[in-house]
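Deliverable D2.4 — example input (structure tokens):
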């Protein structure tokens, strides 16, 4: 296996002096490939190599190998220096040969296990009732498994403790229950990334619009958000969005969806800034 590292490796400081890390999607793809290799070759690998969306290949050590529970392997997530609640999470994949119920043309049936959230509301671009595994990670998982075998596989992704981790995220507000989301578009976590925060703001507006909300409340921070929810209890949690510095983005997104009413809440100093 290649041991080449990506340009933005957790072992190499970036331009800000902070270590980059790996997304839950990258870790899930590595776990899925390792578990499939065990199923196909009869022995669990101690490391596994996967491809990132930019075609860089990276190698991870495997974890939680239990001979009494075969074909289940974890990758321990390293978020680098990002304050990520999933840092250290054991992103776990368990695989088996697919039965006759799999859909032709989809050689990987992807399921969510314990600690992976379930989608309960529209607007995320994911199937309601399905696992909160975003499109890019889902594609990475399928590609990783295909590197081992072209035969139909059922893969279940789980995250021990994921439900507790999700309590520190906006998942409940987005209608994702029971655990965290499997995320990532580049495969790499950049510490304190404004791009990820912006994407989260846009996603929350999209979910509110998909549920037909005609009012959203944009708050500059958590204290402002708490005050707003206490002030307008008649609005559902999905209508409240912490926008930080992305007020303009949120306003344009809301207008694009035809949301009629926008309330803006923030500390006086923050608004003046």
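Example output (designed residues):
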């Amino acid at each position: 296996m290649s041991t080449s590292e990506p340009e933005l490796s957790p072992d190499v400081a970036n331009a800000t002096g902070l270590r980059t890390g790996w997304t839950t999607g990258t870790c899930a793809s590595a776990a899925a490939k390792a578990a499939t290799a065990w199923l196909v070759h009869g022995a669990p690998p101690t490391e596994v190599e996967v491809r990132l969306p930019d075609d860089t290949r990276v190698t991870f050590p495997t974890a939680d190998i239990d001979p009494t529970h075969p074909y289940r392997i974890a990758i321990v997530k390293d978020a680098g220096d990002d304050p990520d609640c999933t840092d250290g999470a054991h992103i776990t994949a368990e695989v088996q040969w697919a039965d006759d119920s799999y859909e032709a043309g989809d050689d990987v049936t992807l399921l969510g296990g314990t600690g992976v959230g379930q989608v309960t509301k529209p607007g995320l671009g994911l199937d309601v009732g399905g696992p909160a595994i975003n499109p890019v990670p889902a594609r990475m998982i399928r590609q990783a498994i295909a590197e081992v075998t072209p035969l139909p596989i059922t893969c279940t992704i789980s995250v021990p403790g994921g439900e507790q981790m999700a309590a520190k995220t906006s998942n409940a507000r987005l209608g994702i229950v029971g655990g965290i989301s499997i995320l990532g578009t580049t495969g790499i976590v950049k510490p304190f990334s404004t791009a990820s925060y912006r994407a989260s703001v846009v996603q929350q507006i999209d979910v509110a619009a998909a549920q037909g909300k005609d009012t959203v409340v944009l708050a500059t921070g958590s204290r402002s958000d708490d005050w707003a929810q206490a002030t307008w209890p008649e609005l559902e949690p999905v209508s409240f969005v912490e926008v930080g510095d992305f007020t303009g983005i949120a306003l344009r997104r809301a207008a694009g969806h035809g949301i009629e009413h926008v309330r803006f809440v923030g500390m006086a100093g923050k608004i003046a800034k």
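The first strand starts at residue 21 and ends at 22.
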